[in-house]
Design a protein that fits this description.
Blueprint (H helix, E strand, L loop, with lengths): L1 H25 L10 H22 L7 H20 L6 H4 L1
Helix pairs in contact: 1-2, 1-3, 2-3
């Protein structure tokens, strides 16, 4: 039972990281960003909220399914877009 939980947590973290990276590309960013912090934040937040919401609406429960993956990516796009509109400047790290 403990191994399944560990695998699930690692899969969710990897999915969040991937969702943030993909959200950046969808919003017109580089595939090799200089600052990964906003992508990771957007990916994890979007994956948590969007993935869970889409999975539960699709009736898949809390398992990693295609509906949750799509929800994670859409959630990450929304969170990253909001971060950009609220003035989070991901280029600030490059100027220093």
């Amino acid at each position: 039972m403990e191994r399944c939980t560990t695998v699930l947590i690692l899969a969710i973290l990897a999915l969040g990281f991937f969702a943030g990276w993909l959200a950046n590309i969808i919003l017109g960013g580089s595939s090799r960003p200089a600052n990964w912090v906003p992508l990771i934040i957007a990916g994890f937040a979007g994956s948590f909220v969007g993935g869970m919401l889409f999975s539960l609406l699709a009736g898949d429960g809390l398992r990693i399914r295609p509906s949750g993956i799509v929800g994670s990516i859409i959630g990450a796009v929304i969170v990253l877009f909001a971060m950009q509109k609220l003035g989070y400047d991901s280029r600030a790290a490059r100027r220093r």
